[in-house]
Amino acid sequence: MKWISLIGLLFFVTGCHSQTIRDKFNMLIGKVDANNIIRNSRNLQIGIIESDGSIRDKNNMLIGKVDNNGTVRNRNNMLLGKVEQDGDVRDKNNMLIGKIDSDGAARDRNNMVVGYAKGVSKTYAAVFFFFDLFQR
């Protein structure tokens, strides 16, 4: 799995404290702050999340979007995949590629923990861990 450099993908903050994304060793990868700004582990701004689910990089270029149903698309509106209500993560061909547990653990298709998302919704945690929007 290819990891991305921009973190906190697609988490829409609802006015609470910053939400964190951690790797499988529980090391901080990044966060989304209360102003919907995506920050890396050094606290540098690397993107922003808009209220409609659009994700923009630090240069304000659109890189992807997630809708209310968990469907994820890249900047060209091409389907990347979907996050189901139960936390299952499926690619554009409906193949299971991972799962987000109720405790925030992100697991790959082999049930191995690949990271943790504290306070982040299943949909947005899954987008971060399993979709590579920032590389498209």
Q: What do these coordinates show?
A:
By secondary structure, this protein is mostly beta strands. It is 7% helix and 41% strand. The chain has a twelve-stranded antiparallel beta barrel with strand order 1-2-3-4-5-6-7-8-9-10-11-12. The chain is globular and about 35 Å long.
Q: Residue share in helices?
A: under 10%
Structural class: mainly beta
The N- to C-terminal Cα distance equals 15 Å
Number of strands: 12
Order of helices and strands: EEEEEEEEEEEEH
Low-confidence regions:
1-17, 132-136
Which strand order spans the largest sheet, edge to edge or round the barrel? 1-2-3-4-5-6-7-8-9-10-11-12
Shape: globular
Question: Percent of residues in beta strands?
Answer: 35-45%
Mean pLDDT: 75
Continuous helix count: 1
- Work out the oligomeric state of the chains in this entry: single chain
What is the makeup of the main sheet? 12 strands, antiparallel, barrel
Radius of gyration: 13 Å
Which terms summarize this structure?
disordered C terminus, 12-stranded antiparallel β-barrel, mainly beta, 136 residues, 1 helix, disordered N terminus
Topology diagram in text:
Blueprint: E1 19-23, E2 28-32, E3 37-40, E4 45-49, E5 54-57, E6 62-66, E7 71-74, E8 79-83, E9 88-91, E10 96-100, E11 105-108, E12 113-118, H1 122-130
Antiparallel strand pairs: 1-2, 1-12, 2-3, 3-4, 4-5, 5-6, 6-7, 7-8, 8-9, 9-10, 10-11, 11-12
